[in-house]
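re the bet — no i am not wrong, look at it urself. input seq straight from the record:
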Amino acid sequence: MNPPGSAISPSAWPDASPWNIAAPDGAQLDNIKTQIDLVLLALESLVGIGSEAMLEAAVELGIQEVVSDRVALWRLRQSNPIRKGTGGRKKLDIEEARALVMMSCHLAQKHHEAIRRAVCVLETLTENNQPPHQAAQLGDYLDQFTNLYQDRMEDEHRTTAALSDLGLKLLIDLLFYGSTQGVRRLWMALLDRTAPAPRI
């Protein structure tokens, strides 16, 4: 029997525990779609994956009912409220959020070696007080991330330096999302980042 509100077989979820931590409310889901889109943007920028690789990942995970084709994928990513354009869906339900989390972590795991190498280069440069652009790999990644972000997002407040900082943070995050417990880590991070501030 499928869980309430889910059209996907429970066997598609690798481990039920991530989803049992907590269920996001409507406001959190609205913010989660931005965070997931940025994770995928970082993957695109680092390893050059496109929609075809994302759709292949959906098939491999058995979640193609949610991410069925390029149009469905575009609409899910276009639901990010800071994206340019108004043609995408404005809502993201919990099943779609789970599917995008699984797909993101699956792709991060596939490209774990490339992510690990980039993080190692970043650590070396940081220890030597050298800027990330000093290394070609990181320089190319940050340039691509900044270009894609500025091309796709309606966000005039982030400077190039701020986008570089965001790109580096996402790069480090990808290392953890590509691990064995990646799905749990990303889901918990999304819930934590979108939780409402406590009242004082």
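see?? Residues 1-13 have pLDDT under 50 and may be disordered. told u. also Residues 24-192 form one domain. so pay up
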